[in-house]
Specification:
Elements lengths: L1 H7 L3 E2 L4 H7 L12 H5 L1 H14 L3 E3 L7 H6 L4 H25 L11 E6 L2 H5 L13 H17 L4 E7 L2 H14 L5 E5 L13 H6 L7 E7 L6 H11 L4 E4 L5 E3 L4 E3 L4 H13 L2 E4 L7 H16 L1
Parallel strand pairs: 1-10, 2-3, 3-4, 4-5, 5-6, 6-7, 7-10
Antiparallel strand pairs: 8-9
Pfam family, one: S-methyl_trans
InterPro entries: BHMT-like, HCY_dom, HCY_dom_sf, Hcy_S-methyltransferase
Organism: Rivihabitans pingtungensis
Length: 315
């Protein structure tokens, strides 16, 4: 469980982008299912990417379920049973990669934490595949969000992840719904909740991050809070806001630093693993305890991060 690992280690290294690495290895993700498409087409490649992130130094693998939903799979013609199998396969692949890596590297036992599997719970907007995950303002009520998330949570948890990664949430409404579901229906589960932010103080929908983080303070199932899928330049202010608003461990896994063009669906700029790793050192100094990467980050970024972070993890 994540809470126990955080008691034993002062810093956990998260993985980087899954979709970016799948694309680098030849996958065409121009699809409403995005990386979840590879669960159908080439699941072995997902397992390989998870393994390579562990080898690069990641202590946590995040599953390929971000864009996976019953609604999305139904549009592809899959039954509810087939969709459940895909969701659970995403966890199985990460667990298999973790177990194989750990068994092959006994010299790491006691030096690094046994890696964890985080089941990705993407936002309602990701299912729409219309960019609303980056702005919020869904225009739906809490019951709609509950009905969307409930079966996904149940399916993912049945596959045995160590933690749920409720990530890239653009708004407080969705975070509150997820926290209520965890408290009422999945009391044994642990989760982290991570918001996407538009600047150094606000979620993508516009609420103060401090307000959003504080709203989760009384949910014991939420064991860490933070920010992902956000420009790295905003992270120092956001870490400060999260730490001031909550006693929960803070996690950050921003994008690599490139700029996304939603019209042409492409990235501009260039990323630098060493610069990313140096920025991550600052985020840790400011209080972040779980650090990794989101869009456009790669195993090279995680390897550079681990080069300085591993002594922190092991001492």
């Amino acid at each position: 469980m994540l809470s126990q690992t955080l008691q034993d280690f002062p810093l956990l290294i998260l993985d980087g982008a899954l979709a970016t690495e799948l694309e680098r290895r030849g996958c065409d993700l121009r699809d409403a299912l995005w990386s979840a498409r590879v669960l159908l087409d080439n699941p072995e490649l997902i397992r390989a990417v998870h393994h390579d992130y562990f080898a690069a130094g990641a202590d946590v693998a995040t599953t390929a379920s971000y864009q996976a939903s019953y609604e999305g799979f139904a549009r592809r013609g899959l039954s509810a049973e087939q969709a459940t199998a895909c969701l659970q396969l995403s966890v199985q692949l990460a667990r298999e990669a973790r177990d194989a890596f750990w068994a092959a590297n006994p010299q790491l036992h006691g030096v690094r934490p046994r890696p964890l599997v985080a089941a990705s719970v993407g936002p309602f907007g990701a299912m729409r595949a219309d960019g609303s995950e980056y702005v919020g303002h869904y225009g739906v009520d809490d019951a709609t969000l509950r009905d969307f998330h409930r079966p996904r949570l149940a399916a993912l948890l049945a596959a045995g992840p160590d933690v749920l990664a409720c990530e890239t949430l653009p708004c407080l409404q969705e975070a509150r719904v997820l926290a209520e579901l965890l408290r009422a229906e999945f009391p044994q589960a642990q989760a982290w909740v991570s918001f996407s932010c538009r600047d150094g103080a606000h979620t993508c929908q516009g609420e103060p991050l401090a307000e959003a983080v504080a709203a989760l303070a009384d949910c014991p199932q939420v064991v860490a809070v933070g920010v992902n899928c956000t420009a790295p330049g905003f992270i120092p202010e956001l870490v400060a806001a999260a730490r001031a608003a909550s006693d929960k461990p803070v996690l950050v896994y921003p994008n690599a630093g490139e700029t996304y063009d939603p019209v042409h669906k492409c990235w501009h700029g260039c990323a630098d693993p060493q610069a990313f790793a140096e920025a991550a050192r600052l985020w840790h100094a400011q209080g972040a305890r779980l650090i990794g990467g989101c869009c456009r980050t790669t195993p090279e970024d995680i390897r550079a991060l681990a080069a300085w972070a591993r002594p922190v993890v092991t001492n």
